[in-house]
Specification:
- There is one protein chain.
- With about 525 residues, the chain is mainly alpha-helical.
- The chain folds into 2 domains: about 190 residues, Growth Hormone, Chain: A (Up-down Bundle), CATH 1.20.1250.20; about 190 residues, Growth Hormone, Chain: A.
- It has 22 helices and no strands.
């Protein structure tokens, strides 16, 4: 078996022919099967991101079971969250070679296997391997295709579609917190993980729903996008033009390579047709040769595109605003996951367990997070609103809440701050849209893989760092202050770099005018 062009999600043909024909809107772009893709992505977010947001329940069980320090035990949750995102660039290579559907199905099996094997853990270090690494890699193999497929199927309502699909994180955090708490109480944490592993097999069904677009559909989408891009880019326009002018990814060598590959496949087909009178064994061998040739062509194309995106002349790293976006991602995500992992312990310290049992603070974040994603997505899709500005305002609100949270020692105060954290963190639904505006649809898989990799590094070190600070000071206050300050540094990078880019663009235009 090999991945077809449509499954890879990239167009290797000549787009020049498309412009000469009238474009008929495809019913699956912004409608039709596109909404099944949103449903699939929504379920993926429930089963993966929602489960990870509920790991505070299991973290408390592991502390009691293995009697290890908070810093060491927090590494289990951090490894799972971090590896899910860190493997993004490598999953981009899998998508280029195998396609989103195949990648997601394999990931679903790995994720379920990680949960089930973790039920037999004898120590924390065993969980590092089974839950942190195995389940984490499986989660990453499903998560990235779920985001990329929504980006491929939507043009006009991208922010809304991403917002609806990523609300699964909020629904999942609410549902999985209640489910894991019930399962741990009734059956113990080991059986709870075994049952959760069986539930995670539904990720394979979600992967099967990721039906690839045909090359014709993708070409039509690219043409429509190129016509409207100048009006939509706004503050990011210069950066987008930079990456596009540099981001041809070697079309001429690619065309030559495609012609050579076509000659190879054509010669195999010619020999196959001419040799029909030969023995059946020879025909079988020719079919195997043809399949291997097609697989080789697909793998070479996928790897070439992946390599060019990261290391070639058209590297994504030549886009300075995109690099600033990566630096922001390195600091941002830990500020969101630290409350989910350590809030149950904070509640216990403040003697607020009775109120929290009635309505958990993590559930407040999760529920409001749902509305935040949808509302911010709808606002960003308005023609008079800049997605980039909405994204920045939400970040400012979130970092303010992170710095304020340690000052709240009553349930009402914590609930209000958690609600604001939930709403402002709805900017996660805008991350794929901002990334796509920076690099274009064609490079979304590789670019978003880099962004979630940076988020993964942040998630990997954030909760253990907070646990380590607690072990030293017996307080979580400094953990939130330091995380908030680092987050602010990332936001400053997002503000400064576009301004520098604009200034350089104006200076360049002035020099050209003088010449």
């Amino acid at each position: 078996m090999y991945a077809s062009r449509e499954d890879i999600g990239y167009d290797f043909g000549d787009d020049s022919k498309v412009g000469s024909k009238p474009i008929k809107p495809n019913p699956n772009i912004d409608g039709g099967w596109a909404w099944m893709i949103v449903l699939s992505s929504f379920l993926v977010h429930i089963l993966i991101m929602g489960s990870q947001m509920a790991l505070g329940i299991l973290n408390m069980e592991w502390l009691e079971e293995f009697n290890q320090s908070r810093g060491l035990t927090a590494w289990v949750s951090s490894l799972s969250m971090g590896i899910t995102l860190i493997v993004g660039p490598f999953i981009g290579l899998f998508i280029s070679m195998c396609g989103c559907r195949t990648t997601a199905i394999i990931g679903g099996v790995l994720n379920a296997l990680g949960w089930i094997l973790s039920a037999y853990a004898s120590n924390v270090h065993y969980l590092f391997l089974t839950f942190g690494v195995t389940a984490g890699i499986g989660s990453g193999m499903v998560y990235l295709p779920a985001v990329v497929m929504v980006g491929q199927y939507f043009q006009k309502r991208r922010a809304l579609a991403q917002g609806l699909s990523t609300t699964g994180t909020g629904f999942g955090a609410f549902l999985m917190t209640a489910l894991l708490k019930y399962l741990c109480t009734e059956f113990g944490w080991r059986n709870a993980m075994f049952i959760q592993g069986a539930i995670s097999l539904n990720l394979c069904v979600c992967g099967a729903l990721m039906r690839p677009l045909s090359p014709k559909d993708l070409r039509e989408k690219y043409v429509v996008r190129s016509e409207s891009e100048e009006n939509q880019a706004k503050a990011l326009s210069h950066s987008t033009e930079t990456i596009k002018s540099n981001g041809v990814l070697g079309e001429e060598p690619e065309k030559k390579e495609e012609a050579a590959n076509a000659e190879v496949l054509g010669s195999v087909q010619h020999v196959e047709i001419g040799g029909k009178s030969g023995s059946g064994r020879s025909m079988y061998g020719l079919r195997i040769l043809k399949t291997v040739s097609q697989l080789t062509v697909t793998v070479r194309k996928g790897f070439a595109l992946w390599y060019s995106s990261y290391f070639g002349a058209a590297s994504l790293f030549t886009n300075r605003v995109f690099v600033a976006f990566i630096i922001w991602a390195l600091f941002a995500y830990s500020s969101f996951v630290i409350p989910f992992i350590h809030l149950p312990e904070i509640v216990k310290q403040y003697n607020l367990s009775r109120q929290d049992n009635v309505f958990p603070l993590t559930s407040i974040i999760a529920i409001v997070h749902i509305f935040g994603k949808v509302i911010l997505g709808v606002i960003s899709d308005l023609p008079c609103i800049s997605t980039w500005n909405v994204f920045l305002m939400a970040n400012f609100t979130l970092v303010t809440c992170i710095l304020t949270l340690p000052l709240m020692q009553t349930y009402i105060g914590l609930a209000v701050v958690c609600a604001l954290i939930g709403f402002s963190s709805g900017y996660f639904s805008l991350m794929p849209v901002v990334t796509e505006d920076l690099v274009g649809t064609k490079h979304l898989a590789n670019a978003y893989g880099i962004i979630i990799c940076a988020n993964g590094i942040s998630a990997l070190f954030g909760p253990p760092f907070a646990g380590w600070i607690y072990d030293i000071t017996q307080k979580y206050d400094f953990s939130f202050y330091i995380a908030g300050l680092l987050y602010m540094v990332g936001i400053i990078f997002l503000l400064i770099q576009p301004c520098i880019q604009k200034k350089q663009s104006r200076e360049k235009s002035t020099e050209e005018a003088q010449v």
